[in-house]
# Entry
Amino acid sequence: MFSSPKLAALLLLVCAAAQAQTDKFTGIGRPATPAEVKAWDIDVRPDFKGLPPGRGTVAQGQDVWETKCAGCHGVFGESNEVFSALVGGTTKEDIKTGHVARLLDPSFPGRTTMMKVSHISTLWDYINRAMPWTAPKSLKPDEVYAVTAYMLSLADVLSADGELSDQNIAQVQQRLPNRLGKTTAHALWPDGRPAKPDAHGSACMKNCATEAKVASLLPDFARNAHGNLAQQQRLVGPQRGLDTQVRASAAPATAIAPTVKPVSALLSQYACLACHQIETKVVGPSFREVAAKYKDRSELREFFAARIKAGSTGVWGSIPMPAQDLPEADLAAISAWLAAGAKR
Amino acid sequence: MNIARPGRLLRAPEHLLSREQLAAPPEQRRGFLRGAFAAAAALVATSARAQGDDHILKPPPHSLALGQPVALEGYGHPSKFEANLQRRQSPGLTPTRQASVSFAPLQGLFGIVTPSGLHFERHHQGWWDIDPSGHRLMVNGSDDKMLKRPMVFTMDELMRLPSVSRFHFIECGANTGMEWGNVAVPTVQYTHGMLSCSEFTGVRLIDVLDMCGVDLKRARFVLAEGADGSSMTRTIPMALVTSGQVLLAYGQNGEMLRPENGYPLRLVVPGVQGVSWVKYLRRIEVGDQPWATKDEDIHYVDLMADGQHRQYTSTQEVKSVVTTPSGGQVLLDQGFYNISGLAWSGRGKITKVDVSVDGGQNWRPARLETPVLDRCLSRFNMPWVWDGKPALVMSRATDETGHVQPSRAQLIAVRGRRSIYHNNSVQTWLVQESGEVKNVQLS
# Structure
């Protein structure tokens, strides 16, 4: 045991001091078991602390990708109309420099994940904890390695016959296009260091220099883009909301029929697209498959409406579709579209 | 009997116009009003009942009959006449409703507290109503020596600990983010509505870390992790924790947190952007370096003109906005108005708010209402007589560090237009001669 009685006494003292804080709140909390910590402590840091051992090839990743990721993110990470693109905008030159040059170009549309990300640990950690979107934490570590490898291959960080593992991830990190693209030299990180804000206003009170010309305002065609503003303001008080269903020129009021949204907007609004695509099977069957399977039924619209409302289990696989609560008009529109063959 | 100023008495238009007519554009509504005034005047001239306002002279049903019983609703609702004030999505901003945001209707709120049901929402993978009896908070270290005892707490246990209650604002880092390039949205709900303010009740995180025997010489950061599908993670600098500011909160405005706001437990990080206030909080890890999580390395990074992204931009700097009058509203008439708005800073208390009605050429100090609290919304008011001419209404706040809110031009000169996050520039509303108020940007 202890070689010196003095050391033993000192250790006892230290333990007693540490115990004091717990004793202050006697009976509150308990030690976490190693199994509990292991179950929840899943984070992976930029220095790869927390990364479990494992490996996955680009080819394996492509298989996982096409069944579990492509529905939302596109076969090549280019994404679809629902989610923003993961891959694109990086070059072989960026892999050398560690800075994505396209970020300097204000005319380049959008910024992909691969253009921004500076740590492979960030991709690994997030895919592991939160993907696929509707079934987070369902991928095994080797699948996470494989999917990450596939994404990296789409940006030429890994070759098509490449592999990502706990052994080579630090080397692969040195090829990430935007690995040097971040800075913490600013005043918005409250880590205790004194920092001076970079953008200051003027305290001028009289005859101040200004930009008094109106340079930007909403165009008239966008007047009603956020719905009727008259219905978004209190009905009592100093002012009312502007009726944006009437044109700015204030033509005589005419009854305006409620606008019918296209079905594509409804599918997006009610997150149908999180599980179903029009032509490809994702989590659930494609809309086209559903339409084809039941096309000979009578009262098809009513059938689809009832199915969407009630949800279903076991018809297309083990993942259940939960009951959906949506307004009758929208339900009818989606059902009619399915009954007509789910055409684009 | 003589009504000295019958016209004035009849002025409030809702007494004369139907709701449909009220919702009509101002020019047309004035037409309705003229008609109504004429009719009313005719009535005054001819009717035997022309003694005053019918709302006074003719008792309404609620004065003449029995009202509703107690506890008709176990949990009360706002008046049915307040149904227009809802949190709303900005159409087209996000493609799904699970990874999305809803905006608080700042245009209709008074004082500084946001009613919990109108609190803005931001979810990354959908929200849950979690059974508190099964919810656990774990505290562990990124290595064995970071703290002496990894521990687990139930909600029952956390709620037995000494609690504090504090008012703080919470603002999404992307609030006003749609307006970097040009005017994109019509009302203050959409320009500034990713902002709310509540009284939060909970336990100081430092007290819980002390129970675990944290080694404050080595611990430089904590990681906060949620229990929902996204298990959202964010790095918090230890300086905020040791000062006792960071709370493990379960209470909000006198009741438990709302499910949309993280029931039963969320982190409160005063002055820091909302994404760090992790909801459904299940774990705190103590470590010696930041984690560069998805929402720290891919999102919530601010692109500068040199192609570098600023990372860990967390502090919400000094900012203010006039909420009345504001975009999408129509002033009913010329004359007196109370210009009113909100000011806040992630670096402390607000010390001053100036208001301009001429596009920033001349400013007057507004009256700050009490309470003025640390990292909390402050309400300001300033009297104004509108002469019916076009006016450019703006507010400009100063915080206790002396930081003055920048104009749009001053902010863009430093940050460019592609930051997405942390737009704290001065907002301008144009009051047109028609009474219509528009969101505008000046140059």
